[in-house]
Amino acid sequence: QVQLVESGGGLVQPGASLRLSCAASGFTLDSYTIAWFRQAPGKEREVASCISKNDGKTYYADSVEGRFTISRDKAKNMVYLQMDNLKPEDTAVYYCAADPIPCHGGLFDYWGQGTQVTVSS
Question: Please, what is the average pLDDT of the chain?
């Protein structure tokens, strides 16, 4: 059974850093692509970052490029999203998602429950 559990969200000031974690179970990171999505109040859900199952190639939305870093620890079956220089516009619920498709291959079938990130002074 595929399960994803996010952690690491919180309330921080602009310019601060947070690291989100996604604990995956029921599959290996060699067989599933992992993406971090986010949804701000009143806005559509958008992909922030993605890491490919096969070669670990990473993808970032323009809005987070250079500030966020996605990584994975295959031994622990964990995926991380390091978020630096956070901005108020990064405030959202962040979701970890998994699927056997490539990063740009379509819809993701498996989702975590989400973790809230709030950036405010």
Answer: 96
